[in-house]
Amino acid sequence: MKFLITSAFCFTLSIFLIGAQAKVPVDEQFRVVNQGGYTDYNTIEYNADVRGYQPFNDDFRLCFYNTTPNAYTLALRMGNRAKESFLRWIWEANRGSPVKESSTLTFGEDGNLVLAEADGRLVWQTDTANKGAVGIKILENGNMVIYDNKGKFLWQSFDSPTDTLLIGQSLKRNGRNKLVSRKSRSVNTNGPYSLVLEAKKLVLYYTTNKTPKPIAYYSYEFFSKITQLQSITFQTVEDIFDTTWGLYMEGVDSGSKFNVSTTLSGPKHNVTLSFIRLESDGNVRVWSYSSAATSSAWDVTYTAFSNDDPDGLTDGNDECRIPERCLNFGLCKGGQCNACPSDKGLLGWDETCKTPSLSSCDPKTFHYFKIEGADSFMTKYNGGSSATEKACGDKCTRDCKCLGFFYNRKSSRCWLGYELKTLTRTGDSSLVAYVKAPNANKK
């Protein structure tokens, strides 16, 4: 009798487990091989070659793309081929780990989306195997989701942004809390710029191996008193009174029952298909897609650093405030690199301009040259230290890694420069930069 009861219990349990473990229907499964001709012939961002696959909808599609031979990224692109519009990239699975020709993308019976090389080596996956998935789709807002038979999302692309947020997508304290730029238009690895959700604000950082911590070069402040930001969401809303659309960042604060926000712009056309991106050049832009847009169905409807800012929306920040605007070194004004500072004066700038090379840390082997009315990208959002101008210079002289220093004579603040990069030419003579240069060889 005991044996019969045990057998009946095991049989019932096995039926329950089989029923609970839903499988992806055959018509929802797919396996594609990354090979053959290219499928999208519209103008493609980054001048990429594209092979488009499922899933897709009118405005979004999952694709393989490459900017260099035999190095493919699995990504979502935005734009409608029927409108002959420019196609742009809004999410990536395998940045920094490109796959080769004949790699595979599989969504099988177990509900796991898997990217693998031709030899079977796993490159990326959603980790949704045997969790009850029954399908995958791209929603109208561009969120790619794997869902169960109750419609619950087991995985969504909105939880793993790279350099871009779509409308309704968030940075989260307990989740993905930052965007990271790509290195360049042609090189798809992590770049030096990041947009980070912190306790009370959003901060743009420049990362370099010459400093122990990333350097802040811009900060989005919010109007309300904040205890602890839990999330920041990119949002849009239509103003029915003046028919404009508001683009804004909406924050949720754990210390209050209301949201806090900062407005980015107010375009005149429907911008529900928009994304905000931290670009490879270190700027932050909003791209809005609409049939009413002025050029190829796209408008830039917000820019963090603008050289043409009559309304003061960028808080006086032109592109000279972006660390690598002048690449390795240069003096910048109005977004233009117009001089290469040297101990012989201000020379004409080109891409070869760089900081002087020192052969020794011995103070006897170098000197400083001075640039009046010059500021650094790091001074506005980093407090510096209180010191006299001489004491500031002495600190830099004793520090072998210090390439120069910046001093504000009005506030008596000092900043040591371990990365000089782009200097901003100002009309304020109280701002001064000093750069280390080697002494001339004695004969």
TrEMBL record:
Annotated keywords? Cell wall, Disulfide bond, Glycoprotein, Lectin, Secreted, Signal
The UniProt entry, under InterPro entries, shows: Bulb-type_lectin_dom, Bulb-type_lectin_dom_sf, G-type_lectin_kinases/EP1-like, Pan_app, SLSG/EP1
Question: What SUPFAM superfamilies has UniProt attached to this entry?
Answer: alpha-D-mannose-specific plant lectins (SSF51110)
Q: Name one Pfam family in it.
A: B_lectin
Chief localisation class: secreted
GO terms, molecular function: carbohydrate binding
The stretch of residues making up the signal peptide is: 1-22
The record's section on Gene3D superfamilies has:
Bulb-type lectin domain
Ranges for domain Bulb-type lectin come to 41-159
User: Coiled coil: which residue ranges?
Assistant: none
Query: What are the residue boundaries of the Apple domain, all occurrences included?
Result: 361-438
Compartmental location: Secreted, Cell wall
- SMART domains, from UniProt? B_lectin
Q: What is the recorded name of this protein?
A: Bulb-type lectin domain-containing protein
Originating organism: Brassica campestris (Field mustard)
Task: Please name the taxonomic classification of the source.
Answer: Eukaryota, Viridiplantae, Streptophyta, Embryophyta, Tracheophyta
